[in-house]
Amino acid sequence: MKKIIQFHIYKGDKYYIAQGVDLPIVTQGKTLDELTNNIKEAVDLQLEGENLADFDLESSPSVLVNMELAMKVYV
User: Fold this and answer.
1) pLDDT at residue 75, rounded to an integer
2) What domains lie within the chain, and their CATH numbers?
């Protein structure tokens, strides 16, 4: 059973986008604070009334986010 729900975050043209690694969730926000709140809300909605064992999750999972940073290429 997993203790952590993972998300990958990257910057789109106008918004930050979070894609769930473990759950079929995609959400966005104009700021990282807004995105954080949207991730929490999306996870709550996805798991509301569900048996967490069906998602291979322990009873009180936490959320871990990985953020992709754009890098300048130096030649």
Assistant:
1) 66
2) 2-66 (3.30.2390.10)
| 38 against 72, higher pLDDT | 38
How far is residue 74's CA from residue 66's CA, in Å, rounded to a whole number? 24
Mean of per-residue pLDDT scores for the chain: 93
The Cα-based distances of 68 to 7, 25, 71 in angstroms read: 11, 17, 9
Q: Pairing mode, if any, of strands 26-29 and 16-20? A: antiparallel
SS3 category, 68? coil
38 to 34, 47, 58, 71, 75: CA distances (angstroms): 6, 14, 22, 26, 38
- Rounded-to-integer distance, Cα 30 and Cα 13, Å: 10
Question: Rounded to two decimals, what is the model's pTM?
Answer: 0.87
pLDDT at 71 over 90: no
